[in-house]
């Protein structure tokens, strides 16, 4: 894990937030390659959830909402974690994370010290809207994006003339004042979520829930290329269910630091949220069902995942070390559509005859793909650098290029090479990359 975290920093994927001041626990910055990977993940999700479906639309809602939203949703009362402090070393823990010892007595896992009684701690960040910081101006940074969809149910239903079943999707930042952030970007205080609320007729909810579970697992394996053997689907036990849920299933990944842990939750939220907002806002949030002539409150199936945890998953799953001709090679086997750089342009050397055609090839590719031009150090070293950041193809310009107007495309995983005329290069790469 340490090697992996240092690769993420060294190659510009993830930096500690405000690092020059010593950082801030649970907050991270994404570097030049990290932001590309993150955008590609978001694009892939949006494509699967919105663009390729005719029953889901997108939305973007504000992070700070009327605080009554969080009273209605139950977050003010119940979005809490029990926590304890160690009286000796002062470390703080989520009670859920502690395991009783043989005497069934909870002790500090770090120093064995005595723990305080468990206290409930609300995970929502509070702030104030306006110049006066008093109770009346309290507002919250949203802990999930979902409520933005529920409070806009009627707006979307009427403006988009939707019929059930239909969904509303959103990608956006969420904030949780987690007691124990950690495991790199696995548990953050500020993170991005991709959530979709799928509204269905009551009674059709269980079947839609199963369909969404299957579809979401397929996205992780087929679209993102995460290995099936590292994933599992876990059913929540009754006592584990959130206050709004009838059934929840987690997709879990086998992380090297934690074992199987949640990367996406797929919940049947029933009609809980719409009912609560009807009551608290005093507005009718119903759907007119022509078949029965009745106004009904739809049920909701919600696939919810975090971008940052997905980022960590695809990097860990794609990370590999191999031996090639007696030398170690580190590579990221990322699907081409996720790779931050699609093609690297590499002149064989800095020879003055090779630079102009190499620059020309780079200019040719740049409008079509994210590219990187690199002429520093030996060609072997440069291939290794690209392997390490997951670049699927390297385009090499050599002395033959001066004669035949062709270049070599070198592939990351098998390291195979093929000669392609410059005139066909864009099409050839597009076909190989197979992405949009
Ligand atoms: P956990 O049990 O790990 O705290 P959760 O059950 O509270 O997660 P959900 O409320 O279901 O999480 O949120 C949906 C998704 O959002 C999770 O699957 C995860 O990918 C992401 N997520 C939740 N909390 C965090 C966090 N603190 N940092 C990063 N991602 C998060």
Q: Explain this structure to me?
A:
With 436 residues, the chain is of the alpha+beta class. It folds into three domains: 2-74 and 135-315, 2-Layer Sandwich (BirA Bifunctional Protein, domain 2); 80-122, no CATH class; 341-433, Anticodon-binding domain (Rossmann fold). Helix content is 29%, strand content 29%. The chain is built from 13 helices and 23 strands. The chain has helices at residues 2-10, 32-51, 68-72, 75-78, 146-151, 153-159, 205-223, 272-281, 307-318, 355-365, 379-388, 399-404, 425-433; strands at residues 14-16, 28-30, 56-58, 80-85, 92-94, 119-122, 125-128, 138-141, 166-175, 190-200, 231-235, 247-255, 259-270, 287-289, 294-296, 299-306, 319-324, 327-332, 343-347, 371-373, 393-397, 406-411, 417-421. Strands 3-9-10-16-13-12-11 form a seven-stranded mixed sheet. The structure holds adenosine-5'-triphosphate. The site of adenosine-5'-triphosphate (ATP) has 16 residues, from strand 10, strand 13, strand 16 and helix 9.
Could you give me the name of the CATH homologous superfamily of the largest domain?
Bira Bifunctional Protein, Domain 2
Spatial ordering of strands, largest sheet: 3-9-10-16-13-12-11
Mean pLDDT: 95
Name the structural class: alpha+beta
Radius of gyration: 25 Å
Ligand roster: adenosine-5'-triphosphate
Described by the principal axes of the CA atoms, the overall outline is: globular
CATH architecture of the largest domain: 2-Layer Sandwich
Range of strand content: 25-35%
How many discrete domains? 3
CATH class of the largest domain: Alpha Beta
**Helical region count?**
13
* CATH fold topology of the largest domain: BirA Bifunctional Protein, domain 2
Instruction: Report the strand count.
Output: 23
Q: Low-confidence parts, pLDDT < 50 over ≥5 residues?
A: none
Largest sheet: number of strands, sense, barrel closure:
7 strands, mixed
Distance between the termini: 32 Å
Helix fraction?
Answer: 25-40%
